[in-house]
Amino acid sequence: MKNIITVESVEKHFDSQCIIPSLSLDIKEGEFITILGPSGCGKTTLLRMIAGFEYPTSGNIILDGQVINQLPPYKRDMNMVFQNYALFPHMTVEDNICFGLKMKGMSKGEQLKKAEEVMTLTQLTEFRKRKPKQLSGGQQQRVAIARAIVNNPKVLLLDEPLGALDFKLRKDLQRELKNLQRNLGITFVFVTHDQEEAMSMSDRIAVMNNGKIEQLGTPEEIYYQPKSLFVATFIGENNIFEGDDRIVSLRPERVTIRSEKTKVANIESASDKVGIVEDMEFLGNHHKMYIREEETSNLLITYHTVDRVHPIKIGEKVRLHWSQEDEVVLG
């Protein structure tokens, strides 16, 4: 799979402040890649440089083999979807979608043909004559995407496009967006601060912190093999242990527990630990348990399936176990 975008040793300074130190990133053709990080880490600035709304202080941005540093946004074969959708309020859905085609001088018949295709794809056909104020947030978001993909750009850039939506609609549109990307085969570059969103939608994730990419990999690699303390603590929950000149992370689901009252033959081993349940949270089919290990005083998080017959209670002594192979030594 070839690179469609190459970010080559790019830096960005605002006045005397360095927002992004030297950063390099290869984006594959046809992939769904997410730039993930906390507010202020530089992810939107990076996206805006790729789009052409900001220019790099140094380095190159290459699109399909061509350096595009100085090209204005409208001359780059990519489109951007913003969080606020930026729809024209006085235009219908159909007119919003056709606007870019009209500006390119395309005939009315060809405009309508292309608009019809993307409205079918984004399930907007029945709303074609409505104006944005007559649409729900999810429908407006689909119009913004339809308008962006009607030109069949090489790359679609999405800056927190689901951020303003309620939880259920956000979940529904995550699935829709991923399916749409698969069907179109267009490269999606998606920016978000939401770890779960990134994990559920992406082929690869670039985790950013302080203007740098801390780790680039598949969701599974990012989750199970974090390369730094920041990635281990930013993506999901983790138990962190420090000692012997090293830092180790351990995912809560890798820790199994049982009550000290439970007598099970031949199950105890030297690797078992003993702890006291300090707190727990009910999360439906499982409890999230906070357990203070007796030997080290470490506070561990683990998940335990709800047991209505023999429930574990706060203050109870429990045995913990995990395999050493589930420990990840952080760089």
Structural features, described:
Helix content is 25%, strand content 34%. By secondary structure, the chain is an alpha+beta fold. It has a 6-stranded mixed β-sheet with strand order 6-7-8-3-9-10, with helices on both faces. The longest helix is centred in the middle third of the chain and has 18 residues, at 167-184. The relative contact order is 0.12. The mean pLDDT is 90.
Can I get a quick summary?
The protein has 331 residues and is α+β, with helices and mostly antiparallel strands. Helices cover 25% and strands 34% of the residues. It contains 8 helices and 18 strands.
Mean pLDDT: 90
| DSSP E strands, number | 18
Order of helices and strands: EEEHEEEHHHEHEHEEHHEEEEEEEE
Alpha-beta content class: alpha+beta
Q: So how many helices?
A: 8
Rounded Rg: 25 Å
**Strand neighbour order, sheet with most strands:** 6-7-8-3-9-10
General form: globular
**Largest pleated sheet:** 6 strands, mixed
Q: Provide the β-strand percentage band.
A: 25-35%
Give the helix proportion (percent range). Answer: 25-40%
Q: List low-pLDDT spans.
A: none
Calculate the terminal CA-CA distance, rounded to whole Å: 29 Å
